[in-house]
Amino acid sequence: ALARRAGAALPCSPAAMSQCEGKRRPVVAYYYDEMIGNYYYGVGNPMKPNRVRMTHSLLGNYDVFKHMDVFRPVASTQHDMSIFHADDYIEFLTRVTPDNQMEFVTQLKRFNLGEDCPVMDGLFDYCATYTGGSVNGAVRLNYDKADVAINWSGGLHHAKKSEASGFCFVNDIVLSILELLKHHQRVLYVDIDIHHGDGVEEAFYCTDRVMTVSFHKYGGNFFPGTGDQGDVGHNKGKYYSLNVPLKDGVDDTSYNALFRPILQAVMDKYQPGAVVLQCGADSLTGDRLGTFNLSLKGHADTVAFMKSFGVPLLLLGGGGYTIRNVARCWTYETATVLGKDISNDLPGNDYYDYFGPDFK
Hints:
Blueprint: H1 2-6, E1 8-9, H2 14-20, E2 28-31, H3 50-61, E3 69-72, H4 78-81, H5 87-95, H6 105-110, H7 123-142, E4 148-151, H8 172-180, E5 187-191, H9 198-203, E6 210-217, E7 241-246, H10 252-270, E8 274-278, H11 296-307, E9 313-316, H12 323-338
Parallel strand pairs: 2-3, 2-4, 4-9, 5-6, 5-8, 6-7, 8-9
Antiparallel strand pairs: 1-3
Helix pairs in contact: 3-12, 7-8, 10-11, 11-12
């Protein structure tokens, strides 16, 4: 069952080959499906799945795959997604296409598909691919086959039980946490995307088995408009939702002056069995939609800090709309997790021209 759920190692993975030969397992498991870059939200939509392919190309040309187990994820099924999502919503995602969408006018409105969450070619396959990577990573952590699992195509934190939202259709994070809860009494979710992790918070708002911590811009009608400091959870979940609303322009120093003491206290008091970290790159300086001022190093410092606790860690992607910076960010954070120094000068890669004029 583990082999089926946790994905098959790509043949090019020396780390996976060494595991088969009986050597020490690698610390990091990395999930990637080459088809992820083929999905297209449409003209003018800032969400570009191709940024994950750009990240993968950079990582390959930095020659870091030999330090990881590299897997092609097993796609999530309709049944897998329905563990959290409503059956009729997932059924709709399997059926709707750009060609037949006008037959589903009522459902399109009901399930909030439209400009931000368009009906695109291969929609269900896209959801199955990115969700599979996240859930596979959680399974691998559960079976102690890795200390860190990475799926940069995941982290779509806005999707609700019966509704798409903010470029997100299926909430792979919620499904991954539910998987982790099979083996861990408590799971901590941390979100450093500039947008509030509303879908994940909502899913676990009434339980103490999952604590959610979100650092995000708040105010001025900024999407999604939730995440006030006073939103702390309900019933058993009261005080297990922690929101850190921030204003425009927050930089490395001010961000980490909040992040480190808050997460140190959370780890000390909550003592989770596993951590899920959503690494939305729209909190970087210069993002197309974001207004924060974090550098690559400042963003990656949060990853290094959470890794330092030695708790099973699932790293996921998320937002990020200046795609050359997203690829830089997630490449650097992969190297950070591996403890590898990589050159500031970018190696030749399939997307080299995207990174001009400095190619750093």
